[in-house]
Amino acid sequence: MKDSKAPRSSRSPRPTFAEVAALVAPSNSAPWLPAFLEWWAQGIRHDMLADEFRPKTVEAVNRLSRVAEAVVILRRELDDPNIRNLIEFSRTPKRIPISIGELSDLSYRTEAALSSPALIGKDGKTKRGPGKPIAPDVFDAKSLCAARILELGRFLNKFEPGSKSRKAAEAAQAYWLASGGRSEGFGDPINGWKRYFKIAKDNAGSIGLKRLIWWRDLQQCARRGCPPWYIGSYFPIKEA
Questions:
Q1: Where does the pLDDT of residue 124 fall: very low under 50, low under 70, confident under 90, or very high at 90 and above?
Q2: CA-to-CA distance for 240 and 237, rounded, in angstroms?
Q3: Rounded to an integer, what distance in angstroms lies between the CA atom of residue 42 and that of residue 48?
């Protein structure tokens, strides 16, 4: 059984996937687990990349405002038969598959999004800061990493760790770093994983967490004794 190590800083050597495996399942580290973790890390790296492309709140508000303006123009111009007929008969005499009612619905949805709590604070103003709005069933990379640790614990240890489990947080931090993630900010990074485990637990049934797919991955790997393909080395990988 391997003792838990102190959290590594962003400048320290990244953990190997074999070290992560020892933290995930200290008393039941299957021979195939390090290779599986390295194979699974592709998903974490994908989630990190997706995070980079998600707009911050102010940017999201600006882009939604442009959508709202565009819909107003479309509704006004397409409601004019002189313009609509020119467009419909410009190539083939077929009706435009966008009705004024559908544009009205899109306008309503856009305005609702602009006034939602995801973008607007209690003071009625656009939220400031580096935060990014969260859509239903869409989760940031750290929440998805935490959910993977929960699934690993449930499969290998026969129980799901609690959201405040320090051992689970240490495993998540090690896996995050081994997969190319960064550890930024001040204080103990292990403490920051509590919120991500809570998000994962509170949304356990969400399709966005892909937990059923991950469970199937684990079952198949355990049955075969290896992941679908493996060309790695269990060693750290470069930053995503």
A1: confident
A2: 8
A3: 10
What does the pLDDT average to over 212-224? Answer: 91
Per-residue tokens: 133: 């709005």
Domain boundary assignment for the chain: 17-53+136-224, 57-114
* Neighbour-count burial for 155-175, b at 16+ CB within 10 Å, e otherwise: bbeeebbebebebbbbbbbbb
The pLDDT value recorded for residue 201 is 94
Decide: 228 and 39 in contact? Cβ < 8 Å: yes
What gap in Å lies between CA 217 and CA 201, rounded to an integer? 20
Phi then psi for residue 126, to 5 deg, are -60, 135
d(CA 138, CA 52): 14
Within a 10 A sphere around the Cβ of 200, how many other Cβ atoms?
Answer: 27
240 has a pLDDT exceeding 50: no
In the numeric block, the tokens 């356990």 are attached to 204
